[in-house]
Automatic annotation (TrEMBL):
It is a multi-pass membrane protein. GO terms for cellular component: membrane. Keywords: Membrane, Transmembrane, Transmembrane helix, Transport. Pfam families: SNF. The keyword Transcription does not apply. NCBIfam families: Na_transp. This is SNF family Na+-dependent transporter. It is found in: Membrane. It comes from Ignavibacterium album (strain DSM 19864 / JCM 16511 / NBRC 101810 / Mat9-16). InterPro entries: Na/ntran_symport, SNS_sf.
Amino acid sequence: MKQQEFFSTRWALIISVLGIAVGTGNIWRFSRVVAQNGGGSFLIPWVIFLLLWSVPLIISEFAIGKYARLGPIGAIGKIAGRKFSWMGAFIVMVATAIMFYYSVVTGWCLRYFISAASGNLMNVENHLEYWNQFASGYLPLIFHLIAIGVVSFVVFRGITNGIEKFSKVLVPTLLIILLGLFVRAITLPGAIEGIKYFFTPDLNVILDYKVWLNALTQNAWDTGAGWGLIMTYAIYMRHKEDISLNASLIAFGNNSISLIAGITIFSTVFALGSIDTQSNALQQISQSGPANTGLTFIYLPKLFGQLSQSILINSVFASAFFLALFFAALTSLISMVELATRTLIDFGVGRRKAIIFVSVIAFLFGLPSAINMKFLINQDWVWGVGLLLSGAFISFAIIRFGVNRFRNEVVNGIGSDVKIGKWYNVLIKYLVPVQVIALVSWWLASSVSWDPEWWNPFHIENAGTVLFQWLIVLIVFIIFNKYMYQKTVENIK
């Protein structure tokens, strides 16, 4: 099957892939994790793991997608061999399972933008109660449907007329809004204290192994490395497009946006220390709240309402924040829907039928998360950890192919402007697997320590629920491995 559609330019590719990487994790999760891990002390291991985890995996995804011209199921089968298409299926499952509830979160962002733009959000006295009323009602269902509808329309239009055109509007607009919020935040009285906290390391905190593990977790979350999403967009790279330079631009561009968002939020929190003491403000920003929503949907709206005496000015600031958050969620959701759609296309389904099927399934399977917060928390826990296993499978596929051969023939092949050295071999063959083993072991061990019934698969967040759900999908995919390989790889030869 000959590749028919490509991104029109390198700029179009970069901006679209940046839309994958820049999501809600850059804006709300990053700031919360920084506050929980000692501020500036967290940034050092965070940057180190950008180089040790995100960069090599983003390079790998670009290279695999460009080489195989298939979604993760066919691509992993083509790279690792016919016995391992099930690994690609697991990668698809993880991203698709996240898509189901991420659409609900995208709907939340839209709802809060509308509330802020109307001025209603600034008149709220109890933001926790306001959130609880919204989350327990029927509105999340409606906004979940709107989010899926908008994204499905974009993906239906294809790569150049859909994803590329919308990314060219959404991503730059997102950056402009974030920069505007950044300028306003750092000019608030007392903002410098927040910036100092954000960038000042503490040696004692740096030596805490949990800070390093959290830094690796955050990198796995906010760059999009190992999700299979970049691999899917790379299918539409032009043959003479460089891999290594594109990957570097995405990795460092994404983390730069996280820094901008972090400075903005910490400046705002510390500037309003007269409302809450700074220690209490940090405690508030550190708390995850329902499904990690404490900072974004409960505490920050309260802060926005105190920025000035003018409700209009406060509404504008809050509206801009939630619009940026909505755009960030939307561009990431687009890539998840495209991955699921492309998977069906690889099985011979036309794009139109594929997107209709994906849209219906995404809405239906997202309903439990829209209705029940505990279900959303469970899925976020199970498949969030699953992202690490996805990264391990990508590394494994390259090792099976031959790391040095992969680097020379695929990464440094046609279109390569910047050649990647042997350091890549070491990272993919040794350090990425070690990081996965360490992090997954830590996550599961931690869940055992806080839950005496860690084996119970029906608890919300523990080792049992993760292993149980993983085991089910892995058994199914291994059983159907031969069929998947034949449909996605052999049928296109």
